[in-house]
Amino acid sequence: MILVHRRDHLRAEQILQQRLLSHPKIELRFNTVVTEISGTDRPRQATGVVLQDITTQKTGYIDADGVFMSIGHAPATELFAGQLPLKSGGYLMTEANSSRTIVPGVFAAGDVADDVYRQAVTAAGMGCMAALDAERYLTKIGLSQAA
User: Fold this and answer.
1) How many structural domains are present in the chain?
2) Which of 100, 68, 71 is nearest to 7 (CA)?
3) CA-based Rg of the chain, rounded to a whole angstrom?
4) Among candidates 108, 110, 107, which has minimal Cα distance to 123?
5) Residue range 44-75, pLDDT digits in tens
6) Which of 60, 67, 133, 146 has CA 20 to 30 A from 81's CA?
7) CA distance linking residue 81 with residue 86, whole number of Å
8) What is the percent of the chain with per-residue pLDDT over 90, rounded to a whole number?
9) Could you tell me if 95 and 49 lie in one domain?
10) Does 94 lie in the same domain as 52?
11) Domain boundaries, position 130
């Protein structure tokens, strides 16, 4: 397995970096980017990638059965700056075990609130939590149509 990283260092926790760097089946390529993914249409699958070293500009092709891309994560919470409190990293602050913010009737879920797991599946679950919290809030203020 080859892990391609566009920078010259990792920013993960030290223990995670040590595990990655010491893994015998993982090759790490720093200062490298994927510039092209090749593959087949039927069946649809990757067959290789073109990698470019960003310091030397040299490129090379490697065979690959699969490609997994991750480009980092920054919550899009600029809209709420100055209106809702933010955690470090820019995530919206919510009440413990809830999607409620400090503003009544405003709920946060998924990519703007989840600074721990940052996964689509948890975002979907948090969306459900926010919908239930919103319904309870609307019922409490007399605006819900739920029986």
Assistant:
1) 2
2) 71
3) 21
4) 110
5) 889 999 999 999 999 999 999 889 877 667 78
6) 133
7) 8
8) 69
9) no
10) no
11) 78-140
Q: Which residue has 């609130």 as its token pair?
A: 113
| Rounded CA separation 136/146 (Å) | 9
Task: Indicate the pTM of the whole model.
Answer: 0.54
Helix (H) or strand (E) holding 125: helix 120-140
Across the chain, what does the average pLDDT equal?
90
Q: How far apart are CA 2 and CA 15, in angstroms?
A: 19
| Cβ within 8 Å of residue 39, ≥6 positions away | 45, 46, 47, 48
69 inside domain: no
Instruction: Residue 63: name the closest of 74, 73, 50, 53 by CA.
Output: 50
At 125, give phi and psi (nearest 5°).
-65, -40
In a domain, 71, yes or no: no
Kindly report whether the peptide bond that precedes residue 24 is cis, defined as omega within 30 degrees of 0. Answer: no
The tokens of 53 are what? 């070293």
CATH number for the domain including 32? 3.50.50.60
State the residue for tokens 């990293």.
89
